[in-house]
Structure formats: structure tokens, C-alpha cells
Design goal:
By secondary structure, this protein is of the alpha/beta class. Helix content is 44%, strand content 18%. It contains 19 helices and 18 strands. The N and C termini lie far apart (65 Å). It is globular, with a radius of gyration of 32 Å. The protein has helices at residues 42-50, 83-87, 92-110, 116-133, 139-149, 166-178, 196-207, 220-226, 245-280, 287-302, 370-377, 412-416, 422-433, 451-464, 481-493, 505-511, 531-561, 584-604, 614-639, and strands at 4-13, 16-26, 31-35, 57-62, 68-71, 184-188, 212-216, 229-234, 237-241, 330-341, 344-355, 359-363, 385-390, 396-399, 469-473, 497-501, 514-517, 525-528. Among the domains are: 248-302, no CATH class; 330-529, 3-Layer(aba) Sandwich (Rossmann fold), CATH 3.40.50; 537-639, no CATH class. The strands form four sheets. It has a six-stranded mixed beta sheet with strand order 5-6-7-3-8-9, with helices on both faces. The longest helix is centred in the middle third of the chain and has 36 residues, at 245-280. A hairpin with a 7-residue loop joins strand 17 and strand 18 (525-528).
Length: 642
């Protein structure tokens, strides 16, 4: 039995069918990635699940008492609150319990020798039990874990919501949602405005989340790491694939090919049967056979056994970046660059050279200067010291993630060619069709377009300019997965230089051959490879660091254990522990082993996901207490040895 069941659902708006004969079940504990082209109805599905929207036909059934937490793409927050107050609203009942516990404790102190004392103590015990059961002693730690994981520092806690940027507000809304005790999370593009570190935190959180989650995301890395099912919303229906994204993409391709082959095979067979029946029906000796074949074809149609032609996949962009002429080998040089805003130094003695054919991805947390570097390259921002030089006579294509270069008063066609002649207009309309602008779409004002449509206009303008160099700031924002894949293929084939900023790790893996890493409070570095190269190196370095720490801890333990431990009087303490028959060396080895196990266990408490699973947290604490108790006995046994 599912926690949410949609049966034969039909939804349409203004004569346009969005969902039709849709069936879908979400089960308890499911982790589902909901994918589909922009405009296919994913947000509509979420509104049906929450009850904000009712189907015109069909039913949506929710399990009794189901708690749903929904994060829309444009969340609303109470702007009169501070960040911490807004995020901790979900724990208001816990805070009220804490306040009552404090009140009762004071009353007990005031009336400890009166008749009320016994009743007060009973109430105190009950409140303590309820407080512990509701996570009252952990929620502050959990709040700080979630806020820190999403990129907030303690200095941000008292900031009014009204003063936060759009990205910070989205992250605050995500933090508030993750802290709710919901049975089902609905996340609509949760990685918008998240840097890679915050996205990795979200992945870890969702992987350990005890309830069900349905995630709309164009982040293919996240879908591969978090979900165990893909719900593909295509052609107004949902098809569920029991796998992560990468396997789904291949499974869907095979499914489509199989459907096309089966359709063509049946169509060819039916045409042959009909042609044969028509050819021989006048022949008396074979007319009965002909009528039988025609009757069989008619019966197949009546019984719905005739396969429908597979609906073609949604039209895809057609992008190809072709420089008008080959550039020189050197494209961009940064020498001794310094850039600061007040006391915040983004770059100091920064040097970089980019050559034709290099595709460099810039990665690092939000706020380290990635966009600033691109703006300096485009001479939209001047460095405080040093030089940023794009070599002369280069045709540069710049993609601004805020779309500030678009002119909202122009039409789509005018944005590509403001003064196009009649003959040019025909050519440009054909060109814009490659970016899915057809018919009267080309006369829409740019300011009225959605974020995804504006992204397509930006890409069309880039392609139309035939650039020798591409400088791209978050070019995959607002693009659905099929559009991302087309852009990736175009950039892979591009012969010019590319300098780009992206938080899309899948995109970085496919496109770039070099990384510029701008870590916070650390020196920048350049390295050959893509995101996976960098992530693997980081994992290897972390493994080495942990191994070195473990070895240092063991060595320190061995050094300590070689010292003689006698009481000041010289008396050796008798060992009456379970380890009395063990040798000193065996006890030492057991101590080292249990200390290592305890250290590894305590590292798990840094994982925010455990605070969402009360049973798991209790198990870890119990195991931690057990190891500490055993270590105490082992240490006492060792201390008793002379």
C-alpha cells in the first residue's frame, strides 16, 4: 500500500492537457527522482500530492495522517524572523517543553518541602520523557549541522530573513524543510543556489533520511547518489524505473527503441495481411481465407491490440559552436591579479594562462570569486592590481548566469539580430527553431520569457556570434537534462577555448579537461582532469590523512603503554577483571583496537542524517557507551600490571 496513490489522473489548463490517465504510487521509504522536460507537469504533480490542486478526472489518495513537507522552487519565508528563528520554527513545541521543564524545576526548588513536591516531580519526569522522545536534547545540534552543511555560518544566525539574498533564502527554506518530521519530502529543484559542498551535504542527508522523498532535479550526480527509483514524466504519464539516473537513461533508450521496432514489425505484418486479403478476395477459392484475415485485423483493432505509433521524444536543441576563424594559441593571461571587496580578499598574486582548445572549469564554494574572475576576463570588473588580458581580435561569447545582458524590451528575434532585413528574418526564424522557438514564439518579448527560455535565447545568441572563446557562468541553470546533454556535446566538439563556472558535477565531468580550484581560505590551484579526477584525489588525500592520524594515535598508545604504572607506594594493584588471564601485550592490542573503533564510531556523529533517525542515534550512543565501558575495564586491567 502506497503512502500516495494517483489513479487515472487528468489535469488540463486553458484547453491544454498536462496530465492524462496518469497512474503512480509512492511507497513508504521510497527515494524517487522525478524527471521530465521543462513544462511537462512536474510541479503540477507536486501540487496534486499536497492537495493544493485537485484533478479534473481521477483520484489522489494519501495515507491517513501523512505528514508532507514541500519545497517549491520559489519558497516563501517570514521576513520578520531572523535566520535561526525561521529555521527552528519546526521545533516550537520542543522549545515550549523546554520552557515548561525549566518552570517546573524552579517550582520544585521553591516547594521542595511542601505537599506539591511529589506532584511536581511526577510532572517533571513526564516532561523530561516527552522532551527526550521529541529530540529535545539534540535539535540545536541538528539545526547547526543543517545550517552549516548548507553554507551558513554562526555569524549568519541573527541576520533578518529580509536582508538575505535570493539564494540564501532558498537555502534557508531548504534547511527548514529538512528539519521537519515529515513522512514525505517533496523537493522541487533543491540544488538551485547550492554550491557543490552544500549539494553534497544534501545528498548525504537525503541518503540517510528515514522517510520517503520525491526530488525534482536536473542534477544527475545527485540523482545517481540518492534515489533508488526514477519516475519519468513524459507524454502526460509517469513511467517508473527501479534504478538510479544513469541506468534509467539507458533503460529508457532501449525501451523506446524496442517500442519503435515492435510497432514497425506489427505495422508491416498488418499491411501484408491487408494487402494479401485485398488481392485474393475476388478469388473464390481463397475468398474465405481473405475474409478471415480481414476479420482478424478488425478484431485486433476492437480489442486494442494494435500498437500505437510511439510518440516521438520531445524536440531537442541543436547547438553547434563554430568559430569564424582559428584563434592564436594564447587566449587569456592573468598576471599578479589582486581583487578585494573591503576586508575580503578574493585574489592575491593570481596567475593563469589559457590556451586554445583548453576547457577549464572553475570550482569552489559560493563567494570565493568565481564570477568575479569571469567578469574581470570580460573587462566588466577591473582588478585592484595586476592584469587580466584577453588577446586582441578575439570573438568572445559570454554567458551571464543572471541574464543581465538580455534586453527585456526586445523580441527573441531582435535579441539575435536587432535590424534584420526581411530575408534575414526568414533565416533567423529557421535558426531559432533549433532552440525550440517556433512560429510566433520569435516575437515574444524577452522580458516575458521563463528562466529556461531566456537561457535558450542566451545560447542562441552565443552560437549566432561564432565565438573563438566561450566564457560561461553557470550555463546549465534553468536547462532540463536533455538540453544539458546537447550543450555538453556541443562544448565537447568545440575547437575554441572555454572558461566556465558550474556547480553541475556531471557537466564538469563531460566537458572540462582542466580545473581551476578556488577553495575558501586556501591557495588556488590548477590541475589536469575533470571533477571526478579532483574528487578522487580529495578522497585519497582524506584516506591518507585518516590513516596517518590512526597510526599516530596507535603509536602514542604504544608509547604510553610501555611506561611502568605503579602506585606511589610501589604496590601493584590486583587485577580481578575478566582480562586477568590475558597477557599485557594482548590487553594493549585490544585497547588500541577498541579506541580505533570508538574513534570511527564518533566520526559518524558528524553525519547530520543520524539526527533524523532516532533509533539509529540511540544505537550509536549505546555502542559508544559500551565501548567506553569496555575501555575503562581494559585500562584498569592494564593499570594493574606492574
Amino acid at each position: 500500500m502506497g503512502i500516495v496513490t494517483l489513479q487515472n489522473v487528468h489535469v488540463g489548463f486553458a484547453g491544454q492537457t498536462v496530465l492524462d490517465e496518469l497512474d503512480w504510487v509512492v511507497h513508504r521509504g521510497d527515494k524517487v527522482g522525478l524527471v521530465g522536460p521543462n513544462g511537462s507537469g512536474k510541479t503540477t504533480l507536486f501540487k496534486l500530492i499536497t492537495g493544493e490542486l485537485q484533478p479534473q478526472i481521477g483520484t489522489v489518495t494519501r495515507a491517513r495522517g501523512l505528514q508532507i513537507a514541500y519545497l517549491p522552487q520559489e519558497p516563501t519565508l517570514d521576513t520578520s524572523n531572523t535566520l535561526l528563528a525561521e529555521v527552528t520554527r519546526t521545533f516550537d513545541n520542543v522549545r515550549q517543553l523546554e520552557e515548561r521543564v525549566a518552570e517546573v524545576a524552579q517550582l520544585i526548588a521553591d516547594h521542595h518541602d511542601t505537599d506539591r513536591a511529589e506532584d511536581l516531580m511526577a510532572e517533571y519526569d513526564e516532561l523530561q520523557h516527552r522532551l527526550e522522545a521529541s529530540g529535545g536534547y539534540d535539535y540545536e545540534v541538528t539545526v547547526r549541522e543543517v545550517l552549516g552543511g548548507l553554507g551558513f555560518s554562526p555569524a549568519d544566525y541573527d541576520l533578518p530573513i529580509a536582508t538575505l539574498s535570493g539564494g540564501q533564502k532558498c537555502r534557508a527554506a531548504l534547511a527548514e524543510l529538512l528539519l521537519q518530521e515529515a513522512d514525505l519530502l517533496l523537493l522541487d529543484e533543491p540544488t538551485n543556489h547550492l554550491d557543490i559542498e552544500a549539494t553534497q551535504f544534501l545528498e548525504k542527508f537525503l541518503a540517510g533520511y528515514h522517510g520517503a522523498a520525491v526530488v525534482v532535479s536536473h542534477d544527475r550526480y545527485l540523482l545517481d547518489r540518492v534515489v533508488d527509483k526514477i519516475a519519468d514524466l513524459d507524454n502526460r504519464k509517469v513511467t517508473v524505473y527501479p534504478c538510479a539516473y544513469s541506468d534509467y537513461a539507458e533503460a529508457k533508450r532501449i525501451r523506446q527503441l524496442t517500442a519503435e521496432r515492435e510497432y514497425e514489425k506489427q505495422k508491416e505484418w498488418m499491411e501484408h495481411q491487408w494487402e494479401y486479403a485485398q488481392r485474393v478476395k475476388a478469388d473464390k477459392s481463397r475468398s474465405k481465407q481473405a475474409r478471415g484475415r480481414l476479420s482478424h485485423l478488425e478484431r485486433m483493432e476492437r480489442e486494442g491490440k494494435v500498437l500505437a505509433r510511439p510518440v516521438a521524444s520531445h524536440r531537442r536543441l541543436a547547438i553547434q559552436f563554430t568559430p569564424t576563424q582559428r584563434s592564436g594559441d594564447m587566449v587569456l593571461r592573468c598576471e599578479g591579479v589582486r581583487k578585494a571587496y573591503g576586508d575580503v580578499i578574493l585574489f592575491n598574486d593570481f596567475n593563469l594562462e589559457i590556451y586554445r582548445g583548453e576547457k577549464i572549469g572553475i570550482v569552489g564554494p559560493n563567494g570565493v570569486g568565481k564570477t568575479t574572475l569571469l567578469r574581470m576576463a570580460m573587462r566588466k570588473t577591473e582588478p585592484d592590481a595586476g592584469t587580466v588580458r584577453l588577446f586582441e581580435n578575439l570573438q568572445v561569447g559570454y554567458y551571464d548566469q543572471e541574464h543581465e545582458d538580455l534586453r527585456p524590451e526586445l523580441t527573441v528575434m531582435e535579441e539575435i539580430e536587432p535590424k534584420a532585413s526581411q530575408s534575414q528574418q526568414t533565416q533567423i526564424r529557421s535558426f531559432l527553431a533549433r532552440f525550440l522557438f517556433q512560429g510566433d514564439d520569435v516575437f515574444k518579448r524577452v522580458g516575458t520569457l521563463s528562466g529556461g527560455e531566456q537561457s535558450r535565447v542566451m545560447l542562441a545568441r552565443l552560437m549566432y556570434s561564432n565565438p573563438q572563446v566561450l566564457i560561461l557562468d553557470e550555463p546549465t541553470n534553468h536547462l532540463d537534462i536533455p538540453a544539458k546533454e546537447v550543450l555538453e556535446d556541443a562544448l565537447i566538439a568545440y575547437q575554441g577555448a572555454v572558461l566556465l563556472v558550474s556547480h553541475d558535477r556531471y557537466f564538469l565531468d563531460r566537458v572540462v579537461n582542466k580545473l581551476l580550484v578556488l577553495p575558501e581560505r586556501a591557495k588556488y590551484e590548477t590541475m589536469t582532469g575533470n571533477w571526478s579526477t579532483y574528487a578522487n584525489r580529495q578522497a585519497e588525500q582524506e584516506a591518507r590523512r585518516r590513516a596517518e592520524l590512526d597510526e599516530a594515535r596507535k603509536q602514542a598508545r604504544r608509547t604510553t603503554r610501555t611506561r611502568t604504572k605503579r602506585l606511589p607506594s610501589g604496590e601493584v594493584v590486583e587485577d580481578d577483571s575478566p582480562y586477568a588471564s590475558w597477557s599485557t601485550e594482548r590487553i594493549e592490542e585490544e585497547i588500541i583496537e577498541k579506541e580505533t573503533a570508538l574513534s570511527e564510531l564518533e566520526q559518524q556523529f558528524a553525519d547530520p542524517a543520524i539526527y533524523r533517525d532516532a533509533e539509529r542515534a540511540r544505537t550509536l550512543r549505546a555502542e559508544s557507551d559500551r565501548l567506553r565501558a569496555e575501555l575503562a575495564v581494559l585500562n584498569a586491567a592494564w593499570e594493574s600490571r606492574g
